[in-house]
Amino acid sequence: MTINILAIESSCDETSAAVVVDGRVLSNSILSQDIHKIYGGVVPELASRAHQRHIITMVDLALREAGIHKRDLNAIAFTQGPGLMGALLVGVSFAKGFSLATDIPLISVNHMQAHILAHFIEDPRPSFPFLCLTVSGGHTQIVRVNDYLDMEILGQTRDDAVGEAFDKIAKLLGFPYPGGHLIDQYARRGDPSRFTFPKSEIPGFDFSFSGIKTAVLYFLRTELKKEKDFINKNIENLCASIENTLIGMLFDKLTLAVKQTGIREVAIAGGVAANSLLRERIQTKQKSGWHTYIPEFEYCTDNAAMIGIAGYFKFLRGDFADLTVTPEARLQLDRI
Ligand code: KG4
Ligand code: ZN
User: Fold this and answer.
1) Which of 12, 243, 301 to mutate to test the pocket of ligand 1 (most atoms within 8 A of CB)?
2) Residues contacting residue 306 through CB under 8 Å, at least 6 positions apart
3) From the CA of 149, how far away is ligand 1's center (Å)?
4) Domains of the chain
5) What is the atom index within ligand 1 of the atom nearest the CA of 300?
6) Which one of 26, 61, 196, 240 has the fewest CB atoms closer than 10 angstroms to its CB?
7) pLDDT tens digit sequence for 277-295
8) Is the pLDDT of residue 231 over 70?
């Protein structure tokens, strides 16, 4: 039997739908909501409204691109959380309505697990157990992955996520939201040792990113008083130095986790896994015996393909959501 899954992602500011057939991604339509740029951050109410406006088009696109008709679907996977409540509700309600109308079972997917399982979309695939540094706009975690659906958080941020730190610092530098990738771009032409920012010293595998954000704020205030054009004149060196500090903090903890667990299968996942310095640095670790796994850019930032692949593994285990319209429930509905 072929397993055809329609997947929906709506946890933040990407409206995305994908079709995954037997664990293979046939389509992955992603719409990034531009509206938030004006406000310098995601406005939850606007995100929900934009999801509402675009979700049907995105699902339609994904089904058409995959050449799959809705009657041929075996399950609908949706992001259950974590994420913005109003944004998640759009995806859940759509999936639930679709399921009620078509009798297709539902699968609920954890967004962070899905970021990690994006590694099973394409080769090379990590073998278990592996460590995954999961870094996004909302999370920063080191996860020990024992199996597809068996994961253990070894450490995480105690305040801001690293992506959030990238975006907030980018805003201080005058970049539009989300500015993480712009810091990355400018950093390529800068000197990472030009400016020094403090790294947080938290014991164990936990992180903290609020200190560096404040340090950059005070540093810029002082320098701008001396020279009005300080940011423009130093933008490349500033970006390179900030990026070097943020990625350095991630890397120190990841190296510690590898040392202490003895696990050398190491993956990165989430939006910040698109960062070129992080990708470069993790690759160089192959020389010291790490087996490293870096997802394609398309599968780093939020996308429904990763929800579909996670949904596929849950389907194989018969792990369906409570909202599923079981044959018994259908009978009751028919009687009403
Ligand atoms: O996983 P994701 O798409 O959404 C969340 O679940 O949060 O991650 C988005 C985050 C944003 O903070 C964005 O600035 C950051 O990933 N990001 C980057 C890069 N590309 C995206 N941060 C640093 N360098 C990049 N190249
Ligand atoms: Zn995400």
Assistant:
1) 301
2) 9, 114, 115, 117, 118, 121, 299
3) 24
4) 4-116+301-333 (3.30.420.40), 126-295 (3.30.420.40)
5) 1
6) 196
7) 999 999 999 999 999 999 9
8) yes
